[in-house]
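Priority: medium. Attachment 1 of 2:
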């Protein structure tokens, strides 16, 4: 009998703290616009957070656009990729798998509290093998306690799996302002208009127009949270006027842009 072919295992990204000597570890990195961390996974759970800049995180099922106000919890062993939408000051928490039992088993977008933000920066001041009975251990335990109290924000963009629709989705993730109609995207994807529309509806639960509007709303919210004005953001995501953009945000996310954004205090570190 011929042997069934097997896909090679995903790499563990080399710049990580999976092998850190303590259950909670923090990594600080500065990354430039366009830098991509390709599909990979970690043995540990991971909280992706940036003190400045915007990241896009993608799994097989969804994509998230993360401004400084928010972070994404990724459970252990979950394949994902990360793309920098701007200059990013990344601060990543790695949680040993044994300490993840009280944390979600699925990706969760959360708001970062001022306390958690300062705890992350404080743990960066400690050595990797911090004293678990001293300051470092106390900060690590407080981080774990805060992670169980995080407020979830359901701001994901569901992703199709069909390669034709996925090609369209990723093009729009790169530039949500693209205003091509479904006929144009059908040609780009190599599918009929009807087929492409059916795939989006079946695999994301949204029509193509609804999916694009949700992406633009979430993309716009991220840019507002990173300091852009409503007028600048409206133009960046394909709207001719701030009022049209604000109305779209209300329809898709349930409130006006400024009420839904939270611009964090910029800490150094």
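Attachment 2 of 2:
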């Amino acid at each position: 009998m011929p042997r069934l072919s097997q896909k090679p295992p995903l790499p563990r990204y080399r710049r990580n703290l999976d092998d850190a000597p303590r259950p909670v570890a923090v990594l600080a990195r500065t990354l430039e616009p366009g830098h991509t961390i390709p599909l990979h996974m970690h043995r540990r759970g991971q909280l992706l957070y940036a003190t400045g800049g915007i990241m896009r995180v993608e799994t097989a099922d969804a994509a998230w656009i993360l401004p400084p106000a928010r972070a994404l919890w990724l459970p252990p062993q979950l394949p994902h990729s990360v793309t920098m939408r701007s200059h990013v000051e990344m601060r990543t928490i790695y949680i040993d798998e044994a300490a993840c039992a009280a944390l979600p088993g699925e990706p969760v977008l959360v708001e970062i509290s001022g306390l958690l933000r300062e705890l992350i920066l404080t743990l960066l001041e400690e050595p990797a093998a911090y004293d678990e009975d001293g300051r470092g251990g106390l900060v690590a335990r407080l981080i774990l306690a805060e992670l169980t109290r995080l407020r979830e924000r359901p701001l994901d963009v569901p992703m199709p799996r069909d390669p034709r629709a996925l090609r369209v989705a990723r093009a729009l993730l790169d530039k949500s302002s693209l205003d091509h109609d479904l006929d144009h995207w059908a040609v780009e994807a190599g599918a009929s208009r009807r087929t492409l529309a059916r795939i989006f509806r079946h695999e994301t639960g949204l029509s193509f127009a609804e999916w694009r509007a949700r992406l633009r709303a979430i993309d716009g919210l991220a840019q507002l949270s990173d300091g852009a004005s409503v007028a600048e953001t409206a133009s960046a995501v394909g709207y001719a006027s701030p009022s049209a953009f604000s109305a779209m945000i209300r329809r898709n996310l349930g409130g006006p842009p400024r009420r839904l954004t939270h611009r964090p205090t910029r800490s150094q570190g």
